[in-house]
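Obj: model holo form, ligand = magnesium ion.
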Amino acid sequence: MADPPDPAMVSPALGAGAGADVDVDVYLALGANLGDRRRQIDDATARLDAAGVAIAARSPIYETDAVSDEPQPPYLNAVVRATTALPPEALLALCLDIERALGRVRPPGRDKAPRTLDLDVLLYGARVIDTPALTVPHPAMLARAFVRVPLADVAAPGLRHPITGDPLDRSPPSPAVRRFRDSGGA
Ligand code: ADP
Ligand code: MG
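Output (holo structure tokens):
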């Protein structure tokens, strides 16, 4: 078996950028159901890109009904595919920072409270991570049509769930997940 390449030799030659190790493909889910939902999703995408999470593709934006016992406004949802050299913990910290910057508040005891931005790590390459702060693949991703539909839009061909093997590059259409007007997408 070949030895792994020496990063000192690989980085400059491949233009990986100062301080970068190996870029990893990551998938992130964005959701918003308070405030200017569209603007917050656009802003979050730009902030990720500016902070070392290079956006390769963003799904169209979908409007979905909130999954919650308390009545609340509908969500806009999207998924991005990106590459980053940030380690998983730093990527999560960045996501939480961006949520705060865009006005997310977390009322105690209300897990499902409406939010200006929810930014979740769905996949970090094929890594399986289970720490108190971070679970990857995101534990609810397979069950959520509002994740599966936009994920299928941007998934690399043949992408599969690292634990279950479920195909992620296709998803049955769901009447609960509707293309948002002017949704764009890349
Ligand atoms: P949810 O997204 O399930 O509605 P929150 O956005 O309130 O929940 O996140 C609560 C906590 O979930 C975060 O503080 C974070 O530490 C933890 N968490 C665990 N795994 C992940 C993940 N893959 N992506 C985002 N947050 C995660
Ligand atoms: Mg979250």
